[in-house]
Amino acid sequence: MADELVHYDVVGGTATITLDSPHNRNALSAQLRRELSESLDKAQADDAVRVIVLTHTGPVFCAGMDLKEARGAGAGDQGVNEFPKILEQLWTSPKPVVAKLAGPARAGGIGMVAATDIAVAVHEATFAFSEVRIGVVPAVISLTVLPRLNARAAHELFLTGDTFDAKRAVEIGLLNSSVPADELDSEVARYVKALALGGPKALAATKDLLSKPRPATPGEGFEAMNKLSAGFFASEEGQEGITAFAQKRKPNWVPES
């Protein structure tokens, strides 16, 4: 049995999932895909987990699909066929997911970054949609990336495959922030702490709300949104939050610091 390529750890309500395959720049090999998917399932099923952090060892966050495994395989045997499940797990996770990048991401690696709720990278991190330069299409990742990027940037970067830096990644919507390397841990911790203050069910419902198409006009959506809002105000979680606010204490879902 080969050593694991994805590590899973839970501390204080935060599940940290670490890609640990630096020999191939954390490429999405069959083993890494399997272990990553299993770790995401584990975190999402654990009531003690409030926030998920996706990070890595080595100098590269993720180089995309494992091209050694892709070489010579037919369309039905390509590892990319398994990748939509991982992107869906990240995108629809009821627990907020934070991407923590101490290095570059390419292709499918960017697809995962885009599928998370919050993404933070060091200033030195770089990015590229390198697919066209090897004669393939950034098709699967487009479903998570395009909702994040402004259209002009998407056309430019998907079609040229050019490398861009973390500053531009923030400007076009791929990252929430970029920081000096010695501030990466504290910046991620800041986001994790803020996310953990939200009610678990409220966070899941808000994530679902954010992913749905907007109604053509506010008037078309008020009935459904009012029902959702009123239901949460009256819910056990909502009443706990309201009571905690009145009593000037933390709600019972906030992890102990």
Automatic annotation (TrEMBL):
It comes from the Bacteria. CDD domains: crotonase-like. GO terms for molecular function: catalytic activity. Signal peptide: none annotated. Belongs to the enoyl-CoA hydratase/isomerase family. This is Enoyl-CoA hydratase. It comes from Amycolatopsis thailandensis.
